[in-house]
């Protein structure tokens, strides 16, 4: 289940807030009505928040409906709305997001037509896919740039906003129409993800996952890619890297030490896939994290 928002962009104001948040037992009410704490709201002014979940899925609640955001899901919090949000599991949650102040006219819709003029339709949730890593890297770079430079660089922020919308629109068109998998097959995919989470500290092969859920390797990889928009092995790697990053950030583990905790023994292999999925080396990631931590 997803929620689509169609909005006509009237103007861009500025980036109000950009952060990577880590919190235990995260529970919050998201408000995108008006500019809120960011000052006076012009007519049709609103907040558009775009980000991605890094650790511990969250549940968004809107008008009695619940929407689940798994790790590496990109989220688009619609304008002029109020959402309840809580973590799926107790413990540490982390996400990275940017809040844009814009003026727009918006409405909810059941369809997702291609953009026309200043009108764009985006889903609230974009699942992980082979193409989503570029969007995630862009969100991360916007956060780093905002935190590294105080004040508002209007033209730079506007360019980043438009580029992000462009890439999101392209991503939506690429994955739209892939949601035609049966509920039964989707259940097998959920079981596969649960098995991976429970065995994150072990070496995991695709064959082992398939045997655990009672399907052939080829059948599971086929339906998993269609359902999740990402190959099963890539999903396993992303989950392991997410856990490794937490060990590196919170406890100062070396790359080799963190790798041992998720069943990786080859440091060169870890370095390659880290650069592939995060768009930077581990050293660069440590440096970017330190910049965020030092920002007021």
Task: Tell me what the structure shows.
The chain is an alpha+beta fold. It folds into two domains: 4-175, Jelly Rolls; 183-294, Homeodomain-like (Arc Repressor Mutant, subunit A, Orthogonal Bundle). Helix content is 43%, strand content 28%. A six-stranded antiparallel sheet has the order 9-1-8-3-6-10, covered by helices on one side. Strands 2-7-4-5 form a four-stranded antiparallel sheet, with no helix packed on it. Helix 1 packs antiparallel against helix 2 and helix 3 packs across helix 5 (217-228). The chain is globular, with a radius of gyration of 19 Å. It starts with a strand and ends with a helix. 33% of the residues are buried.
- What is the overall shape? globular
The helical percent reads 40-55%
End-to-end separation: 38 Å
Rg estimate, integer Å = 19 Å
Strand content: 25-35%
The CATH topology name of the largest domain reads Jelly Rolls
Strand tally is: 10
Q: How would you name the CATH homologous superfamily of the largest domain?
A: Regulatory protein AraC
- Report the order of strands and helices: EEEEEEEEEEHHHHHHHHH
> How would a textbook summarize the main sheet?
6 strands, antiparallel
Mean pLDDT: 85
CATH architecture of the largest domain: Sandwich
Strand order of the largest sheet: 9-1-8-3-6-10
> How many domains?
2
Q: Please give the count of helices.
A: 9
Secondary-structure content class = alpha+beta
């Amino acid at each position: 289940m997803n929620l689509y928002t169609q909005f006509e962009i009237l103007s861009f104001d500025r980036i109000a807030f950009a952060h990577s948040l880590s919190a235990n037992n995260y529970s919050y009410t998201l408000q995108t009505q008006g500019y809120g704490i960011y000052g006076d709201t012009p007519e049709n002014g609103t907040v558009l928040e775009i980000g991605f979940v890094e650790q511990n899925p969250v549940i968004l609640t809107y008008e009695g409906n619940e929407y689940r955001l798994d790790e590496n899901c990109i989220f688009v919090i619609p304008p002029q709305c109020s959402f309840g949000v809580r973590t799926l599991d107790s413990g540490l949650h982390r996400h990275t997001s940017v809040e844009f102040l814009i003026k727009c006219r918006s409405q909810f819709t059941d369809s997702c037509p291609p953009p026309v003029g200043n009108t764009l339709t985006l889903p609230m949730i974009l699942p992980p896919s082979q193409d989503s890593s570029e969007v995630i890297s862009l969100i991360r770079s916007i956060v780093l740039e905002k935190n590294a430079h105080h004040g508002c660089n209007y033209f730079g922020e506007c360019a980043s906003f438009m580029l992000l919308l462009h890439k999101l629109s392209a991503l939506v068109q690429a994955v739209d129409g892939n949601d035609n998998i049966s509920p039964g097959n989707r259940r097998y995919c959920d079981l596969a993800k649960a098995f991976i989470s429970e065995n994150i500290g072990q070496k995991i092969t695709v064959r082992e996952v398939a045997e655990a859920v009672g399907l052939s390797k080829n059948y599971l990889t086929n339906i998993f890619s269609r359902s999740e928009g990402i190959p099963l092995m890539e999903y396993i790697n992303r989950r392991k890297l997410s856990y490794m990053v937490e060990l590196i950030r919170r406890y100062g583990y070396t790359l080799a030490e963190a790798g041992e905790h998720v069943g990786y023994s080859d440091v060169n292999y870890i370095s390659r896939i880290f650069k592939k999925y995060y768009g930077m080396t581990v050293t660069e990631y440590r440096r970017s994290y330190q910049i965020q931590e030092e920002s007021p």
